[in-house]
Amino acid sequence: MATLATSVTDRHAALTLSQERAASTSSGYLMLFVMLVAIVVAFFGTTQINYTPEIGVPLLLLGALVFAFVMPGFYMLQPNQAAAITLFGSYKGTDRTTGLRWIVPWYGKKKLSVRANNIISDKIKVNDLRGNPIEIAAQVVWRVTDTAQALFDVDDYKSFVMVQIEAAVRTIGSRYPYDDFEHQEVTLRGNHDQVGAELRQELIARLAMAGITVDECGFTHLAYAQEIAGAMLRRQQAQAVVAARQTLVEGAVGMVQMALEQLSAKNVVELDDERRAAMVSNLMVVLCGERDTQPIVNAGSLYQ
Description:
Layout: H1 2-11, E1 26-27, H2 28-48, H3 53-70, E2 74-77, E3 81-87, E4 90-95, E5 99-102, E6 108-113, E7 117-120, E8 124-127, E9 133-144, H4 147-152, H5 157-173, H6 192-207, E10 212-224, H7 226-265, H8 273-288
Antiparallel strand pairs: 1-5, 2-5, 3-4, 3-6, 7-9, 8-9, 9-10
Domain Band: 72-240
Organism: Sphingomonas panacisoli
Protein name: SPFH domain-containing protein
């Protein structure tokens, strides 16, 4: 993982990354009170124009100017919402304080959500480690951690996330085989937790430059492509049959060996090599047969 992070850092070495910092803003409730006072002053000045113009006109102008200055500076932030503050294109910080906020009107405000986002990617076709075409779709839970990087270091951070998810899924999908019946390799189908953790680390490394982290991810769809699905199904069935037969034969051999050893140890019956071979053959047929066997009772001697 350290190598992956280093390669990503080297890849973007020429890019100057932004860094979020706190913005200097004010509570909107205090400025709301100031605006209400300005309205009262302007209204009082209006009532005094006909009687004492030298007082009424200045009060009206003062109230109107204060109202016009204060009113455009209001904005509101909900929980898990932030606003990036800029001044003539220069980043001045990020406000994460919820509620009614106020800043000098000539400052720009760009709101963005820092809540968790859940995305299910489209199904994409990838060649696994053995070259077999497979279909993969992933579910990713991501959120913005650095608003400055998300807004100013990438053009559209949401589109950036979608592209990087597809690239990471292709990388992880081609790194492992789809399945390994002998369970000797890490596979996409058999090691969901391990592969999902590696996919998360791959995404975190890719999305770090956009100020985005990944909380959870995993595959929602994983299957062979349609053109080879039938052949792979038959292959899996054949491998399953062979493995089942192998286990059955190993168990049957152990049972036959145990039966012969106990018969000899307890002197139940003495068998020559020919009769021993016949007994082994009969026991193997009984234990390994796919259908129930029909016993035949020998009413004569063992050698008839």
